[in-house]
Design a protein that fits this description.
344 residues, alpha/beta, two-stranded antiparallel sheet, 11 helices, 43% helix, globular, binds thiamine diphosphate, binds magnesium ion
Length: 344
């Protein structure tokens, strides 16, 4: 089945529209270069993490977002630096886009003492409070009510900050999602609820778990705007999230943005991909968000093909260097390894 027919979202990205051209002008060269850099860093970070895992250097599991990079990067690109994010178990791209130190992320991954959570949290718990990244939990949907609490605090403080609350498609079937959107709507909180819709919750296809065509339709129940966009098109994501961020900053309340995308890898490291076909995976791999963005940038004359590849190579070098530095960092000491694991 064609992707557009299956998802109800127009995903033709090959021709540069007038709207895309205006958006490219508005964003400008440096911001677009930053977006490409963050997408490439996310891709290479996860490829490196997977490699380290296969070599037995990472303990526990991990959830890779390879193929989904446009969703976190396009979303965070719509924020001002002082704005906030709270994300979920598939959150490497969110952390990288929000400016996390990649060496410290890699150190956390490898269980090293200088890591973001002193090596005690691992892949799912990369938080960077000074950078406005309020972290994630592995409990599906539990970040969404937390976002409502943060949004309420921002409102009570009369802050100009906006919060992005990220979650997966599966999370939108939990009660927390519905209660949170209702409460955020009633209170008019400055939150953008963003679904990184990779179309599966573990092995459950999104269409089998709901009887509506698009997740964004759920916004109607709570009287807030909802939109589903091509989540492999970083410009489309940026545009939708920017509109929602502006609404939040004006004090007009929350919105829901559904970024329809796809994860190329399995759910986590124990996945055997028995619930989907190779043809389906190949179909989405052919629409790589990074390749598509590079094509748009070159086609629009924003950058030469050489510049695009230089950004890609620099991102790869950043990740290789981060992995090397993190590998040499010390592990927690047996005497202190329970620090910060239990509440005092
Ligand atoms: C409350 C809760 N139920 C079940 C799980 C097990 N679990 C971990 S990830 C996941 C799928 C979540 O799907 P989705 O929200 O679409 O996020 P994705 O993994 O696709 O990024 C499940 C069921 C959990 N961690 N927490
Ligand atoms: Mg999912």
């Amino acid at each position: 089945m064609a992707i557009a027919e299956r998802t109800g979202v127009n995903m033709e990205m090959s021709v540069l529209t007038d709207e895309q051209a205006d958006l490219l002008n508005e964003l400008g060269h440096d911001k677009l270069a930053w977006m490409l850099q963050k997408m490439c860093e996310t891709r290479y970070f996860e490829e490196k993490a997977e490699d380290l895992y296969i070599r037995g250097l990472v303990h526990g599991t991990m959830h890779l977002s390879i193929g989904m990079e446009a969703s976190p990067v396009g979303s965070v690109a719509a924020l001002d630096p002082e704005d906030l994010i709270i994300h979920h178990h598939r959150g490497h791209g969110h952390s990288i886009a929000k400016g996390a130190d990649i060496t410290l992320m890699m150190a956390e991954f490898l269980g090293k003492e200088p890591g973001y959570c002193r090596g005690r949290g691992g892949s799912m718990h990369i938080a960077d409070l000074p950078g406005g990244n309020l972290g994630a939990t592995g409990v599906v949907a539990s970040g969404i009510p937390t976002a409502v609490g943060i949004g309420l605090a921002l409102q009570m403080q009369r802050s100009d900050q906006v919060l992005l609350s990220f979650f997966g498609d599966g999370a939108t079937n939990l009660g927390e999602f519905h209660e949170s959107l209702n409460m955020a709507s009633v209170w008019g909180l400055p939150i953008v609820f963003i679904c990184d819709n990779n179309q599966y919750g573990m092995s459950m296809a999104v269409q089998r778990a709901m009887n509506i065509e698009r997740i964004s339709l759920r916004a109607g129940s709570y009287g807030i705007p909802g939109v589903s966009v091509d989540g492999n098109d970083v410009l489309a994501v940026y545009q939708a999230v920017r509109t929602a961020v502006e609404r939040g900053r004006r004090g007009d309340g929350p919105s829901l943005v559904d970024n329809v995308t796809y994860r190329w890898r399995g759910h986590s490291k124990s996945d055997r991909n028995l619930y989907r076909t190779q043809a389906e995976i190949d179909n989405w791999r052919a629409r790589c968000p990074i390749v598509c963005f590079k094509e748009v940038l070159v086609e629009a004359g924003v950058m030469s093909a050489d510049e695009v590849e230089a950004i890609d190579l620099a991102a790869k070098a950043t990740i290789d260097r981060a992995a090397e530095e993190a590998s040499a960092m010390p592990e927690p000491d047996p005497d202190n390894m329970e620090d910060e694991v239990y509440a005092p």
